[in-house]
Automatic annotation (TrEMBL), chains A, B:
Allantoate binds at residues 197, 255, 268. Zn(2+) 1 binds at residues 75, 86, 175. Keywords: Hydrolase, Metal-binding, Zinc. One of its GO terms (molecular function) is hydrolase activity, acting on carbon-nitrogen (but not peptide) bonds, in linear amidines. Belongs to the peptidase M20 family. This is Zn-dependent hydrolase. Binds 2 Zn(2+) ions per subunit.
């Protein structure tokens, strides 16, 4: 068994649900078990482990936060029933890359908390806190589906901005590619599409499904359904991505017209202008339909991330180091996108043959994962 | 305070959720508390209480199940966040009606279990079991949202068919009206529309919301949304009622295309032919859209109830007794509909000024409720 396959097997069962997907929500037992594993791996290699008061964990070969250190790593948390590669691949590969180049370098490995936003709703929460992109009190008050706040799960008020992040010379995140654009084992990221998630609340009048005349109804499920179809159609027209994959109805009973339907819009586009036009078109259609249904609509931006262009020079350098690896953009958000505003940042992608991600079928081949370790080792060696 | 207001106040707080709606699922603590209250009320009046092994409770003035007994009563369970009148009004009114006419008559009061189907999915489960309309092993295996079976909640295998039901001379259920059709305090039911609930499962391919090209998607939320709008449009065209008020998505994450969306169709019409045509039209539209979306559709009938015409002679007699009370049909299902196949059955409706039901705003005025008690007393007196 390769060193990759052996180390990967140590975590492959953690948080795996029937059906093959993972339930590794931030700060729940499976993700806490992965953090313990992280500490143990660091310990085996004589690396010091620090926490930043925001839920992010770091292992260091050298002095924590020393000037000129290159940070690598990724996250452990998953979307509900997501794949096992999205996040953990970058952390496992980081330890293995250090095994190849030795531990005498200025290198740190980060495990960022709540990258997916799968528990508290705001993606990249750990890196946003660390860089001051979200106020600690706002983050502390975010609630999961059971009403537990991020502050409660963390056990303390988040520490917020750590100025020492800018002392680092670079952040390099290795990640499984999440589309089908990469046809070689390894690629380098050019940019992350601007993207965001918007919570849309459709309010109507709860009533009896059997006895309420169709003309007397104010059914918010209709407005939601129209908005789902409008978001899809507008995204196709405009060349963007729109998804409404999460929905909650109240009271959610078969024989009751709902009083409230909540739907989340995930929208992404190659540039901010296109994303803005998409959002505007979807809200316009939803509002018009609400007028016809006698319902009301409110829209809250839960998180909006501007376009991220990674450091062009660094991307070119890494591509050259890796035998002219292709440079490509992605529609997926990453902690690297948040950190890129504060220090030179790059991403390495490992090929994903089916392109599936955020689902149990997400998979990278072992040979490609080993190529990823070798590539990351090469990059860390060159940058330190 | 009237006797009605005083007795009503005893149960008004049981299972009341913030927001004013009720969470009185069958065999959960609030509904069990109402059963204890039922036993106490029967005890105060010297009535014997029996259970039928199916979860239905009975209080008897005379020998249980004696030939010629008139049964009245209703149910305690609610839809999630439903109103407080739907069900309990018929039980409270029954005790008060007996207070007026005395306890020397052949009268029983029933409290049927799981009338709404809000916990285990099949409405009128108690009366279906009692009359043999559902097999005890099928009922026992029905699961609630937490995976608990009806058999487990009941604590035993259901007893099933009780032949003695046909010894009774009549069943009369008093119930709040659930539409705006009744403009006098009291009405008499003529019929229940044929109706049913169908679980529709839309299966697609779970994937990443950010990176999956629109043309590569097989998103079941689109097929669900189209079906919601189709059900509404077809019901309006055909003069029927259709509602999709309950939905579940998997994994239900903002940044994931769902792999599965489950939606429930509640459909009702004045006659079986219309209901059949409605269902056929909705499934046709859903199937066509699934073809375009690359998704798959399966439909399971969770319960289908044929048209119920109540005993015409009995309805006319009650209407005459009550000063020519109006005789009207309803789109709502009731235990009386199930029992009507086995013994002469009638329903009394109490006016509902707003017509709202299955929602916190459901309300009948105290004077109308008192008129309901007087009407039920008059009817029980005349029939025994």
């Amino acid at each position: 068994m390769s060193d990759f396959a052996a180390l990967w097997a140590e975590i492959a069962g953690v948080g795996r649900a029937p059906g093959g997907g993972y339930l590794r929500y931030a700060l729940t037992p499976p993700e806490l078990a992965l953090r313990d594993w992280f500490r143990a791996q660091a310990g085996r290699r004589g690396m010091a482990v620090t926490e930043d008061g925001n839920g992010n964990l770091f292992a260091w070969c050298s002095e924590p936060w020393a000037g000129g250190t290159v940070l690598t790593g990724s996250h452990f948390d998953s979307v509900p029933h997501g794949g096992g590669f999205d996040g953990p691949l970058g952390i496992v590969s980081a330890f293995l890359a250090l095994d190849r180049i030795g531990y005498h370098r200025k290198v740190g490995i980060g495990a960022f908390v709540e990258e997916e936003g799968g528990r508290f709703g705001v993606p990249c929460l750990g890196s946003r806190l660390l860089t001051g992109a979200i106020a600690p009190d706002r983050a502390a008050a975010l609630r999961d589906r059971d009403g537990v706040t991020f502050g409660e799960a963390l056990g303390a008020a988040p520490a917020g901005h750590l100025p020492q992040i800018t002392r680092l010379s670079a952040f390099v995140e290795l990640h499984i590619e999440q589309g089908r654009a990469l046809t070689t084992p390894i690629g380098v990221a050019s940019a992350i599409w601007p993207h965001g998630r918007w919570r849309m609340e459709f309010t109507g009048a709860g009533d009896h499904a059997g006895t309420t005349r169709m003309t007397d109804r104010r059914d918010p499920m209709l407005t939601f359904a129209h908005t789902v179809l409008a978001a899809n159609a507008e995204a196709r027209l405009i060349g963007a991505h729109a998804t409404m994959g999460r929905v909650e109805a109240e009271p959610n009973a078969t024989n009751a017209i709902p009083s409230l339907v909540r739907g989340w819009l995930d929208a992404r586009a190659a540039d901010t202008g296109t994303l803005d036009r998409l959002l505007e078109a979807v809200i316009k259609q939803a509002t018009e339909r609400a007028g016809r249904d006698g319902t009301e609509l409110s829209v809250v931006a839960e998180s909006v991330t501007a376009e991220v262009a990674f450091d062009t020079e660094l991307a070119r350098r890494l591509s050259a180091l890796l035998g002219d690896a292709p440079i490509l953009p992605t529609g997926a958000g990453h902690d690297a996108g948040v950190l890129s505003a504060h220090l030179p940042t790059a991403m390495l992608f490992v090929r994903n043959p089916t392109g599936v991600s955020h689902a149990p079928a997400e998979e990278a081949g072992v040979a490609d994962c080993e190529a990823g370790v070798a590539a990351l080792a090469r990059v860390l060696e060159a940058l330190t």
